[in-house]
Each structure stands twice: as C-alpha cells, then as structure tokens.
Amino acid sequence: MPQLSQISRRVENLERAHAFWSDRLGAPLLYRFPGLAFLDLAGTRLMLKETGRREDADILYLATDEISAGHARLVEPGIPVTGGPNLIHRHPDGSEEWMAFFKDDEGRDLALHGIRR
After folding, report:
1. Can you tell me the distance from the alpha carbon of 22 to that of 38, in angstroms, rounded to the nearest whole number?
2. Engineering a disulfide at 105: which of 13, 20, 48, 74 sits with its beta carbon 3.0 to 4.6 angstroms away?
3. What is the pTM for the complete model shown?
C-alpha cells in the first residue's frame, strides 16, 4: 500500500500560517519557494500554499503519543481549543482512541489523535 508523503493546505497568508505550524506546533521547515512553504509532519510533508483568501479545509488529524500532554501544549500558548481530549472509541483489545480539537491561524479545524493501550 502506498504511504502518504505530502498533503497540501491552502492558506490566506503564508507568513502567518508558517508561524502557526512552525512556531506554535513545532513543525520544522524543510524549504520555501515564493508562495509555498514545506514543513515536516513526522515524515509527511505539509505544503502550505498561499492563496490570499480564506478557504474551507478538511480536518488534519495530528498523531500524539500522549493526548493530555499534547492538549496541554495547545492550551499553553493560547491556541483556540474547541474540544477534548475525549474518548472516541474503545477497541475490543482495550486500547482507546482519543481526540482533541483546535483551530488553526485561520479558524479552521484541526485535531490531535492519540491511542492509549
């Protein structure tokens, strides 16, 4: 099965979006071109493409090893948290899926996703 290598997200303002993803969420910058920034999300590239307008976007679910600590890292710098952490599903083996939802710099939904074993 193919592995996801890159995802694109259209943004209104590249500088603001880059600061959010890099400075606030800790995604390292890989490289930039005019109107584009590429960041590393644990081996998957995130391409931010400046469009000059706010657009709807699908939710990106970002993996975390510890949902409570990940949630606290969002709250501390004042990132708008809209829900969670909440238990989403308990698997037959006893592992649990948890999520916490928050907003990006343009007010669009993002989520943390963690599994407790």
Report:
1. 10
2. 20
3. 0.91
